[in-house]
Input
Amino acid sequence: MTATDPVANLQTLIRCPSVTPAEGGALSALEAMLSPLGFKVDKMKATEPGTPDIENLYARLGTDGPHLMFAGHTDVVPVGDEAAWTHPPFAATISGGEMFGRGAVDMKGGIACFVAAVARHIEKHGPPKGSVSFLITGDEEGPAINGTTKLLSWAAERGERWDACLVGEPTNPDTLGEMIKIGRRGSLSGKITVHGVQGHAAYPHLADNAVRGILQLTQALMYPAFDAGTEDFQPSNLEVTTIDVGNPATNVVPAKATASFNIRFNDTWTADSLQQEILRRLDAAANDGVLRPGRATLNYNIVWAERPSHVFLTRNNALIASLSAAIESVTGQSPKLSTTGGTSDARFIKDYCPVVEFGLVGQTMHMVDERVAISDLEQLTVVYETFIERWFENAGI
Output
């Protein structure tokens, strides 16, 4: 088999057990696919104290512009209960017209298809009139510290510049061709701690129940809504994800309570302005005596999670129009331009070049029996191949 076959490519990648942070042989397998096509392949290991070392790969074909980057990750999430899988999670078994395996859609399938698309383009037309590169990390499903962000910096320091990027994440909800991601909401997390006074439940006047305080603060974060949404984004939404007291006794008023939260925010806000709004709400709630009548101002503190993700929106005609036209010509669907969902490594790439995302159907990602239709692999490969042709034709517009 040659690299033109996405099914063979994907089977090779799935059979590499690359659960974050293990490389599992996946990057070496990808190097073996790309090198015969003429790519110059470099691997770089990124390190940072307190985090696992991560192996990453950067490969480039061509030396001139325009320069198109394909980005993705070969690391996968754990398999969960392996006994619950219909087929072994790293066997890449084909059954009933589908390939089963961890990473089939998220996102070794996208990588396998883009490799096949580039290989077919070279076979038919020779190398593109410009450059194509692969920026592949092993840390997207992990802390995302030693992965794409450091690989981008490493490549940029060596003079790499890109005109556009396609990330091969599984963007389609139900059928291939439905959705392109042209931006992402920001993400901000924090942890609030309320300090009260421990005491006997029968003598509440001698205590200060931290649970009452944490309820006041979390209610203030969840209501009212932060905004009504914008033309391009859903309304910002905050979820309280944990409330913890650590009190096993039913007759003891707890002295401390904590709550963690995450907010996905639109372009109404920046991370800084959102932090200020959250602090304003918390300070106002700390003075609210509804649950703590006659009490002094609530004693609390907040710790913000490091590295918030910033909201972004891509407006690039050559990139979006080329991809949309390729999808429609192959699938017959006019894809929706969306900013829904969680974060991806596109949040790092947008600082270097315009970036959009398009890949497989994501219904089974991270699940037991993750799988992809064989027909979708072939169709996505044709979409990518058509996109490559159209983008290099339109890159100057």
